[in-house]
User: Fold this.
Amino acid sequence: MKPQNSLSSEVSVIWQQLGYGEPRQFVCGFCSANVASERGYFAQDPVTGEMLMQLNICHLCSRPTFFDEKGLQHPPPSSTQPIQHIVNPEIRALLDEARRCLSVHAHTAAYWCCKKILILVCRDKGQNQIQSTSEALDYLKDSGHIPPALIEATETIQKSMPPASVLRVQSHSESLELYQFTDIILRLVYELPQTMRELQSQSKRDTAKVTVGSHTNQILNKLQKGYIK
Ligand SMILES: [Zn+2]
Assistant:
């Protein structure tokens, strides 16, 4: 499986004095691959010998994932599938930053990354005058990028947002909600239209092949029956 996000490029490194333990299966928080790694660093209870903490190296991207004494994974795997066809590298970078902020409970930072992403989406659509997230959401609603079924949810998020001049600490639920909402918007604006274009283009090519094939068969039949000399 190929690594999928912007932190995923394979790095060529040699980890020093690695140990080997029981293979541990996990979804790498860096490259989103499902891996089974036995290489890493292992911390045992000095009395019982019980394995308490470990750091496993992903054999695809060579990055380390830490499992604490409660078995919690750091960084955790991405909660969503990677979004395809985002053409703006700044949006990609901010989305990745928001995801990593959420993984270390930096909720306010994640929230502000998402606010910035929503403004950048509108700028991608030529709306360079848009300065605030509220203006961005108004544009996305009015232009039809947000479908009617999501208008009420959008307005609830809009009303709960602090004004741009107010720096407020955001809660886990607020930042997670805005992150997931931003994920949906990016799929609606970038991923779904391009995916449909590609599917329809493929469908047209397949139809053309069938049509050409049928026509060719008709000519061959006529030749065989002597209708065409
Ligand atoms: Zn990895």
Residues 95 and 114 are 7 Å apart (CA to CA). The domain at 81-229 is CATH 1.20.120 (Four Helix Bundle (Hemerythrin (Met), subunit A)).
